[in-house]
Amino acid sequence: MSTDSQDFSGKELAKLYHERFSAEELDGKRQLWEALYQGFFVRFIRPTDTVLDLGAGSCEFINVCHASSKIAVDLNPETKLWARDARVVLASSDNMPEVGTESVDVVFTSNFFEHLPDKRTLINTFNECVRVLRPEGRMLVLMPNLRYVGHRYWDYFDHHLPLTHVSLVEGLKMAGFDIDRVIPRFVPYTVKDSPMKVRRGLVRAYLRLPIVWPLFGKQMFVAAHKAA
């Protein structure tokens, strides 16, 4: 989970994230994404797909994703150090000229939209995602839900744009997406300062118990597809 914030330079982003997460927290993030992918996200992605990770950061998602072609987009130049088998594109989310029109099956993004400076940039980002997606291509969004995170949303210096599941859905529809699934309360907010160590088994158990998601979930998940 990372940022492609248009308000900061790549050097500033690298410094920010070096100081934000400890080595133990970074390990927790890797274990989290291994379990999240196998226990949930794999159902949305085919092995033959081309997947674009928007705001890929340290590449926890794209590195565990099983797809025939993978693209990691971010402004942080250190993304190239993290990506294992993905093509890294250093670009802003609303202008990805190195990504071909209708060349992508799935755009995935996690903890990214809250870093954009305003809703105009968000809509431009949605429009760029529409451009690169093939007909009926999917958009998968995981991010903090302001309705349930509350004031903790502002604990991070690079958080700018507050969204709820309702406003996110409105914006996606405005850009030409049809909504497939909305989970207002999915996973907890952050691994940082977690009272428990994040381990694969714990995450797998959580995913098997959707009855507890409304108790602990502070992040929302929205799946949509490019309208015909």
Mean of pLDDT: 89
| Fraction in beta strands | 15-25%
Number of strands: 7
Distance between the termini: 30 Å
Could you give me the name of the CATH homologous superfamily?
Vaccinia Virus protein VP39
Share of helix, binned: 25-40%
Which CATH architecture?
3-Layer(aba) Sandwich
| Main sheet attributes: strand count, strand direction, barrel closure | 7 strands, mixed
Strand order of the largest sheet: 3-2-1-4-5-7-6
**Text of the CATH class:** Alpha Beta
Low-confidence stretches: 1-5
How big is the Rg? Answer: 16 Å
Dominant shape:
globular
Give the H and E element order: HHEHEHEEHEHHEHHE
Give structural notes.
This protein is an alpha/beta fold. The protein has a single domain (10-91, 98-226), classed as Vaccinia Virus protein VP39 (Rossmann fold), CATH 3.40.50. The protein is built from nine helices and seven strands, in the order ααβαβαββαβααβααβ. It has helices spanning 10-20, 23-39, 60-64, 79-82, 119-132, 146-149, 165-175, 200-207, 213-216; strands at residues 50-54, 69-74, 87-90, 104-110, 133-144, 177-187, 219-226. A seven-stranded mixed beta sheet has the order 3-2-1-4-5-7-6. Helix 4 links the parallel strand 2 (69-74) and strand 3. Helix 2 runs parallel beside helix 8 and helix 5 packs across helix 7 (165-175). It is globular and about 40 Å long. The model is unreliable at 1-5 (pLDDT under 50).
Topology:
Elements: H1 10-20, H2 23-39, E1 50-54, H3 60-64, E2 69-74, H4 79-82, E3 87-90, E4 104-110, H5 119-132, E5 133-144, H6 146-149, H7 165-175, E6 177-187, H8 200-207, H9 213-216, E7 219-226
Parallel strand pairs: 1-2, 1-4, 2-3, 4-5
Antiparallel strand pairs: 5-7, 6-7
Helix pairs in contact: 2-8, 5-7
